[in-house]
Amino acid sequence: MGRLDQCQVTRHGEQPSSGWLTVYRRAAHLVIGCQAAFSILIAGGITWGFYRAGPIEWSMLARPPYPQALGRTVWFSLISAIATMTVGYPLALAIRRRAFLWRTALALSFLPLCCSPLIILYGWLAVFQQSGPLARLISLVGLRPPSWLTPGSLAVCIVMTYLLLPHFVVPALLGLFRVPETFVIAAKSLGATNWQIQQRIIVPLAGRGIWFGLGIVFVQGLGFYVTPVLLGGGKVVTVSTLLDDRLNYLLDWSTAAVLAAVLCGTAIIALWSIIGLSRRLVST
Amino acid sequence: MGTRTRVYRGIVASALLAVVLICSACTREPAKPTAQSSASPQEVVICSFGGSFQDAQRKAFFEPFERETGIHVREESYSGEYAKLKAMVDSGHVQWDVVDVEHAVLLRSAASNLFERLDDLNLPRKDILPSALHPFGVGANYYSTVVAFPESGAPAPKGWADFWDTRAFPGPRSLRRGPRGNLEIALLADGVALDKLYPLDVDRAFRKLDKIKGAVNTWWTTGQQPVQLLLSKDVVMASAWNGRIWAARQEKPKLGLTWDGGLLELEWWVIPRGAPHREAARRFIEFTTRPDRQRQLAELFNVGPTNQRAFDNMPAELAAALPTSPQNRARQTELNATWWSDQEEGLSRRWDAWISAK
Description:
Chain A is an all-alpha fold. Chain A has 12 helices and no strands. Chain A has 2 domains: 50 residues; 189 residues, MetI-like fold (Orthogonal Bundle).
């Protein structure tokens, strides 16, 4: 971590305000600690004896719905992370360059943060119906609304991408703003094409932000619950939906604990591998 | 190196803070229940499902109970977060005295000793339908899962067999998410008689469900979903709860239902173990079994009384609209919750594998 920081600093010739950096970091830890403590307080002083309610059977993870659901959860996260990058990177680039329509790009990428996710989801629920506005528009033109315009896996992936977009754009923008404009101007004056500038200057220098954005989006996607429930039309089974059934309805908390541990472990492994990859690919 | 030490120091500081907060929570723990119970003895906290249903319960039960006994009713509502209920009892911080729960939860929780025993309550037992009595709960009301459809000039479906008939009734459909009730529905559609359902032939039910899977647009999770889908004409028919269809009676298009093949289920009043106002809670539950109270609830919201005396002197028009009136009960069957409490966990795993298979 420290090595990479110094590397970035020397490369950019900037002086970091290390005092503030520490304050931010410490604040982050404080927030996480407080959140954990408060969730325990609000739940009314839960004791650890709770989790010993039943024997924990790790072997059950091999039985039918669980491995498939885990695979699907990871797959949906991956797809929406890649889709978020595909849509978010050009938007971030447009915002950084103050290109034509950059304010529109800014508004587009931050729109999902302006409203409660639940309301956004109900809006999308109307879109993914054969009687919805999009289907009506299509039939107005004289075409038959496509069959994928119903709740299901595709709807879940599209809406996840939409909701996660700002979470990619912010770190990507932070990365892009660290690319000195002078480098770009210098490259241009030496006759570099736009593609070369992207490939040789912007992507390598902004790489950490992009990787960070991907990591955040992927890990958040793993825990998505309301989106698969509402837009999956009951057809999409992810670890979070299985978890909720066991926690709230079947009252089988030992299985729920195992699923939660698996989800948590997957997120940690994903973060580690993304950090590792970013170090290997960006710092060299 | 320097940053790393600072990060570790930050982690240690926040961990210490967390420990302090947890300790303060633990020391407060024993004081809380006694303070609650001594503060207001003339109070009972009742938790139900909220919305227009709880409005009806307020008029039929809560307000008359307050007037008669002087015990103040404090209302809470939830949408079936049973984890919260279990957490309350397990941690000894029970905030609800009476809770309205689903049948499955009553059976599952009675086994794990979550509720108070209620078999010594003073109830008009001979008037109450036998299925509405349980050692740990008292039946609150019956509701039914029925075929619902928008009423148009076209012929209406007459039961679950028509639900599967995609040639005579083309268009997408909606069923509830999960195996509970859907297996019964599939077997009824396959021609099994109402009284021959249990034990369910699970394999046959899944084979029958295979045939409708492609036509199901949404497997609904909330009771309002099928109503919305029917009103927006996204589906041509759906399984739905009778109360929800009744509550949408002012909407256009008008929704219809058929009682044939309806699956009757119960909601239950229970007292969580360690409830602070136990005596008041027991009096309240006894109060709710009175025929006149149940009749008023049925007038205000379309649910079936458990006390059959509630049907005495009832207008014929109202009786015909209720799931437990003698004439409608004969066309339906009761979902066997005891069978389900043994099977549901395994079947829900099978369902989740089935639903995501192509």
